[in-house]
Design goal:
Elements lengths: L1 E5 L7 E16 L23 H10 L1 E5 L3 H12 L6 E5 L2 H9 L4 E5 H5 L6 E3 L7 E10 L6 H15 L12
């Protein structure tokens, strides 16, 4: 009866309530001269693996860019990388973000990952490639039919899901509520 959906299209029969925001970003395994954990502002310039944009572009050309090709936001981000002059040399397409994260952690290449997935269970092991490379901002919604059965249980579940989403900390994107 309820769905948690990323970037849904509006539909007249659905109610969509924003829960939180995330972003698909370009991550690489810690290394390449970085020994310390990323700073508190891990999505700003100080938290990036590369401080030099040309070096980041070179890494994108040399290493495979790993991402799930069924995620349209990843395809859009790859197109934006090409337009910005950061054309990935090779692409390694996979089935989901979990596999892309595992491959990035193993040092196979850089990966397109939602920031929350990159951080989950492995804080500090992956960091942004460069702060000025493009990202794809996501808005995650709770979606349900406008005529859903308003039982005590369903209202409780809806309110708890929205409360949980509202308590999610920002991961480097605007935290506005719509």
């Amino acid at each position: 009866h309820f769905g948690v959906v990323v970037n849904p299209r509006p539909h007249p029969e659905l109610v969509m309530r924003e829960m939180f925001r995330d972003a698909i970003d370009i991550f690489t395994a810690m290394g390449g001269g970085r020994d310390e954990l990323p700073p508190a502002d891990e999505y700003g310039p100080a938290g990036a693996a590369c401080q030099d944009l040309e070096h980041a572009r070179q890494l994108l050309r040399e290493q495979p860019l790993v991402y799930p090709d069924r995620v349209t936001e990843c395809l859009s981000l790859v197109d934006e990388l090409r337009r910005s002059g950061a054309d990935p040399g090779r692409e390694l397409l996979c089935g989901d973000f979990t596999l892309a994260k595992s491959l990035a952690l193993a040092g196979v290449g850089t990966a397109l990952l939602p920031r929350r997935i990159a951080r989950e269970g492995t804080p500090g092991l992956l960091c942004r490639l460069h702060a000025s490379l493009p990202i794809y901002e996501d808005i995650i919604y709770l979606v349900f039919r406008s005529d859903y059965h308003r039982t005590r249980g369903s209202v409780f579940l809806k309110d708890e899901l929205l409360s949980c989403g509202a308590s999610m900390p920002s991961v480097g994107v605007r935290a506005e509520r719509t």
